[in-house]
Design goal:
The protein is mainly beta. Strands 2, 5, 8, 11, 13, 15, 16, 18, 19, 21, 22, 24 and 25 form a 13-stranded parallel sheet that branches. Strands 1-4-7-10-12-14-17-20-23-26 form a ten-stranded parallel sheet, with no helix packed on it. It has strands at residues 3-7, 10-12, 21-24, 29-33, 36-38, 41-44, 49-52, 58-62, 67-70, 73-76, 81-88, 94-97, 105-114, 117-120, 125-127, 133-135, 139-141, 143-146, 151-153, 156-159, 165-169, 172-174, 178-181, 186-190, 193-194, 204-206. It has no helices and 26 strands.
Length: 208
């Protein structure tokens, strides 16, 4: 294992063979600091760590090609921003947005399909910037989800921190998922419409 640090650097892949591959084994780390990954094949094994450093925002853009297999941990540091676009991730890993000391941001740079479990900490934000977000994974913790043209929730959005609040603000929530608050947390819907369906009871709200 070792550490790959990309600072103020752009790495571009290709639709042919997914060139420019980055592989992280169980003891490897990747640090992004003002870095851009365009269509890169990124494979992070269990135990690996990706850190987005504070300062200039970093970008992972898989809008036209690129693969992100995430079985490790992606930490967006306090006061750091990671912008994403396209199909972002699959696997058993997790994205931690901040550690609770000061807000971090996971921002959309285009229409995004999020496939990695995501935990917000403190007052951190998932910022839509006017784009649509589709989630097939759990989003939990405390902070704010805001600014989406639509938020398609196909799994769970869970305010699960005792005494903490997870807010969905200024969007329309659709999809087949669940909105819930557990463990003494509060899920707040502000300036938000929730649309369900007569088929499958989509967008279920559970009160324990």
């Amino acid at each position: 294992g070792g550490t790959l640090e990309l600072a103020n650097t752009a790495v571009s892949g290709s639709s042919v063979g997914n060139t420019n591959q980055i592989f992280l084994d169980s003891s490897s780390s990747l640090v992004l600091s003002g870095a851009t990954l365009n269509g890169v094949y990124l494979n992070a094994n269990a135990g690996s760590v990706i850190t987005v450093a504070a300062g200039a925002a970093s970008l992972i853009n898989n809008s036209s090609n690129g693969v992100f297999n995430m079985n490790g941990t992606l930490n967006i540091a306090d006061a750091a921003t990671l912008n994403v676009e396209g199909s972002i991730g699959s696997g058993s890993g997790v994205i931690n947005v901040g550690d609770g000391s000061s807000p971090a941001t996971l921002g959309l740079a285009g229409v995004t399909n999020l496939g990695i479990q995501t935990v917000l900490n403190g007052a951190s934000v998932i910022q839509g910037n006017g784009y649509a977000l589709t989630t097939g994974v759990a989003i939990s913790g405390t902070g704010t989800l805001t600014g989406f043209s639509t938020l398609t929730n196909n799994r769970t959005i869970n305010a699960d921190v005792a005494g903490g609040t997870l807010e969905i603000d200024g969007t329309t929530v659709v999809g087949s998922g669940t909105l819930e608050a557990t463990n003494g947390g509060t899920l707040e819907l502000a300036n938000t419409a929730v649309s369900g369906s007569s088929v499958g009871n989509t967008n279920q709200i559970f009160l324990d």
